[in-house]
Design a protein that fits this description.
The complex is a heterodimer. By secondary structure, chain A is mostly helical. Chain A is built from 4 helices and no strands. A 4-stranded parallel β-sheet of chain B has the order 1-4-5-6, with no helix packed on it. In chain B, strands 2-3 form a two-stranded antiparallel sheet. Chains A and B meet through α4 of A and α1 and α3 of B.
């Protein structure tokens, strides 16, 4: 029986799409293996949700920084 | 690449904001927005402080495939997202607040976030620049407070092309708007509707 990491990217993407409301899980998935990273990232940046603003850290700024660093991600949003 | 963690101070972290400011300025110039840096450039000054609203503006200039946009104010005093009358009245969220540099010289139609925008939800009056999105088909405007329409007058003349594709407009308003006393929302709404020739559902 095939293991998760042996599945083709198309199937992994379909699985990741079921997790699109669970950003922390997708973020964890992205860190599991190199193969999962682009898959999880693609879904993660389709509709990113940021935590409520806090006084000491701007999550929007962090997202902007990521998007400026990786312009290809902006096409997913 | 934008270096990170260069300006971190314990307990009040503004990691990399100076570098981020430079990247934002470069990006703004790239999309045709002249940015005033240094003395008098409050847009860039706000970036260095980590201003959420300024970064929201930068974000809108980074997302060419955006289809749904909802603009709300966050009440830092109550630590909650707010449709609160007082917050909206004191400081309605205006697009030009997000782009000091964009407001005077920028052609709003070129704002990447408007390129494919289909639905728009706003908890105050829609700014005229947002109506520059030709792909917009539905807008929901919450006007349950006394709006100072003067805030929007200065963008009238620069409105340019409007949302000619807009077919549906939802307006959750209070019954006060029907009062003969003339609520400040009424002239705004009149103008809004006359600028939407494709409107089919209100």
């Amino acid at each position: 029986m095939a293991t998760l990491i042996e599945l083709p990217v198309e199937l992994l993407l379909a699985i990741a799409n079921h997790l699109n409301k669970h950003q922390p899980i997708l973020a964890s998935l992205a860190r599991v293996a190199q193969k999962f990273y682009p898959v999880a990232q693609e879904v993660l940046y389709e509709s990113p949700t940021l935590p409520d603003p806090e006084s000491n850290q701007s999550h929007v700024a962090l997202l902007v920084r990521t998007l400026l660093n990786k312009p290809s991600l902006t096409l997913n949003i | 690449m934008i270096p990170q963690e260069r300006n971190c101070t314990q307990g009040n972290c503004f990691c990399g904001l100076l570098d981020l400011k430079s990247a934002c300025v470069r990006h703004a110039k790239k999309i045709g927005c002249p940015v005033r840096d240094g003395v008098g450039g409050y847009w860039t000054a706000y970036i260095k402080t980590g201003s959420e609203s300024i970064f929201a503006g930068v974000l809108l200039s980074l997302v060419p495939n955006l289809e749904h946009l909802e603009i709300r104010a966050f009440n830092r005093h109550q630590n909650t997202w707010s449709t609160d009358e007082e917050v909206a009245r004191v400081h309605p969220v205006r697009v030009k607040d997000l782009f000091e540099c964009f407001s005077q010289f920028f052609d709003w139609v070129k704002l990447p976030a408007l390129a494919k925008l289909r639905t728009l939800v706003k908890f105050s009056a829609i700014d005229w620049p947002l109506l520059g999105s030709l792909s917009l088909s539905k807008a929901i405007v919450h006007l349950d407070f006394s709006l100072s329409c003067n805030d929007y007058d200065d963008t009238f003349s620069r409105a340019g092309q409007l949302a000619i594709g807009l077919e549906t407009l939802e307006l959750p308003v209070s019954v006060d708007i029907l009062s003969p006393c003339g609520q400040p929302e009424r002239p705004y709404l009149t103008d809004l509707m006359t600028r939407m020739p494709g409107l089919k559902h209100v």
